[in-house]
Amino acid sequence: MTRSNPSPAQKLINNASWLYDMKPPASPLRQQKILYTPIWTAAHDQCFIDSLWDYATDGKILRNDRVDEKALQRVIDMVNIVLKEAFTMDQNRLRWEKLAERYETFTYLINRPKVHWDCWDNTMHAPSAFWEQIFQVH
Q1: Nearest to residue 43, comparing CAs of 90, 80, 69, 18?
Q2: Residue 76 or residue 135, greater confidence
Q3: CA–CA separation, 65 vs 30, rounded Å?
Q4: Helix (H, G, I), strand (E, B) or coil at 28
Q5: CB contact at 8 A, 81 and 12
Q6: Is residue 9 scored above 50 in pLDDT?
Q7: What is the pLDDT of residues 34-77, one digit of tens each?
Q8: pLDDT at residue 54, as a whole number
Q9: Alpha helices, DSSP H, located in 56-122
């Protein structure tokens, strides 16, 4: 069933012009992402989370190996809104519960005093194994 009015998550995503401030993908990994479609259509999909991480790893959040706390909080707030809405849907409930568990793991790791980016893609052009292992939903 489609809604006549955008949901809170869709409104936020539609107004999030900063998500569009991304360069074309430089690597084959990023070419598979959601960057060329309206971002709100991916609100209930793992690709939406991936696109947020693409934004983060393009240097908007991580600058010279330091975390931009305000930018990081923007991403966390947006993901929280999407996850909260997803939990109200019966469809794909188990998928989203699994995703939420990994999201909690992500926020724990990203907020640790010293984060070891062992799996990080140093080029910052693509989501790394770190991201994939946390958010991949089978």
Answers
A1: 80
A2: 76
A3: 21
A4: helix
A5: yes
A6: no
A7: 333 333 333 334 455 555 555 555 545 555 545 566 666 666 66
A8: 55
A9: 69-87, 93-110
Question: In a 10 Å sphere around its CB, with 0-12 CB exposed, 13-18 middle and 19+ buried, how is residue 114 labelled?
Answer: exposed
Alpha-carbon span 38 to 35, nearest angstrom: 8
Q: How far apart are CA 22 and CA 55, in angstroms?
A: 7
| Encoded tokens for 45 | 């999909």
Distance CA 39, CA 107 (A): 22
Which residues, 6 or more positions from 51, have their beta carbon under 8 angstroms from its beta carbon? 19, 33, 34, 35, 39, 42
What are the sequence ranges of the domains in the chain? 8-17+41-135
Q: What is the pLDDT of residue 12?
A: 45
CB 35 within 8 A of CB 23: no
> Tokens at residue 115, please?
């984060």
